[in-house]
Write the structure tokens for this entry.
Amino acid sequence: MRTRERTFRTEAVVLRRRDFGEADRLLTLFTPESGKIHVLAKGIRKPRSRKAGHLELYTRSNLFLAKGRDMDIITQAVTVEAYRPVREDLLRSTYGSYYVELLDKFTPDEAENKPLYDLLATALGWLAEARDLALATRYYELQLLGMAGYQLELFQCVVSGDKILAEDQFFSPADGGAVCPKCGETRSGAFPISLSALKILRFMIRSPYEALRELKLSGSVHAELERVTQRTITYHLERQLKSVAFLKHVRRTVE
């Protein structure tokens, strides 16, 4: 938790930034101890600012802050991890925008959540290096949903409770998991999911990210996985994230 001292240190990832005044910026940060906070970076837009390079979007930095009357002020910043490919490559950067918006919508301000901070920091590393950006993103979405209390049930029918058999099934975002064919045929909002896609979802939920590196999925399975996670996220947030449409546009342009 944040202390009552006039100054404090924290590690943070820069989620958003907005120009303020003639030379300052308002930053939204995600920190391990205080969750999402809003701070001021004075003079960061001046040509000779020493802090500018350490406070780029998606950058993870060690910060020293002073408590202000209305908002805390960054006085020092040192980069821990720049994740340069996430900023410099258009597609990776667009995915990065989606990553931070997804986290933003599932987290209130100033709510400590170190596991979620660690997930974001690690996921940006995946995004900087992954060959299959869509697969890395599905993994991030599934982990975030689990941490937010929406872990998918993929081994029992979420309607009847019966064991899910090795065959094509249905999936219900509202019920939070797999639905057997008997229940799925009449379940409102449920849609078909192939056995192949279901197996990959199960594997992703139970395995570390490193186990996914060698997976090569067909376009149809990729589409099914995205349908599952996107419809689940949209159901819980009651809206589609703004970055999703732009991400789809960029993917069509560069892939």
About this structure: The mean pLDDT is 94.
